[in-house]
Design a protein that fits this description.
Layout lengths: L1 H21 L4 H5 L9 H21 L7 H6 L5 H21 L2 H5 L13 H26 L1
Protein name: DinB family protein
Organism: Chitinophaga hostae
InterPro entries: DinB-like (IPR024775), DinB/YfiT-like (IPR034660)
């Protein structure tokens, strides 16, 4: 079933996000923005958590989360421990919401308009997983580049 696959992917990649953030030698390194790089690892971490907390937690899970996308990219020097707590809580919420979805839920049109049209909830969750993985790769590159 697709929910099992999604749970596996999100568990794997959010755990990897925690490992990447924890692997920085200094908290300052998380927030460096070298020439040619658009975002720090800290901002990408905030963005990933905000994105998932909104599209999965708030929209599908009715958690009440209110996203501040601008802050995801403008915040600076959030302590490493706070980022790790955020990733951990995001993982719990995402896995709980996805585990509660039925096969019928995944076939329904995602309840919020995204991009230029409509898509099924299952399709959008796969997109969110690939979005997470894309930025996870950027964070891994950023960490290796700045250390």
């Amino acid at each position: 079933m697709l929910t099992s696959i999604l749970i596996n992917l999100f568990e794997r990649d959010l755990s990897k996000l925690e490992q990447e953030i924890a692997a920085y030698e200094t908290p300052e390194g998380i927030w460096r923005v070298p020439a040619g790089i658009s975002n720090s690892a800290g901002n990408l971490c905030l963005h990933l958590c905000g994105n998932l907390q909104h599209f999965v937690g708030a929209v599908l899970g009715q958690t009440g989360y209110v996203r501040n996308r601008e802050l995801e990219f403008s915040a600076r020097n959030v302590p490493t421990e706070d980022l790790l707590v955020l990733v951990s809580s995001t993982r719990r919420i995402i896995l709980t919401v996805i585990a509660a979805l039925t096969a019928d839920d995944l076939e329904k049109t995602y309840p919020e308009k995204v991009f230029s049209g409509t898509m099924s909830t299952g399709h959008f969750l796969v997109h969110l997983s690939t979005h997470l993985n894309y930025h996870l790769g950027q964070i891994n590159y950023h960490r290796r580049l700045t250390q």
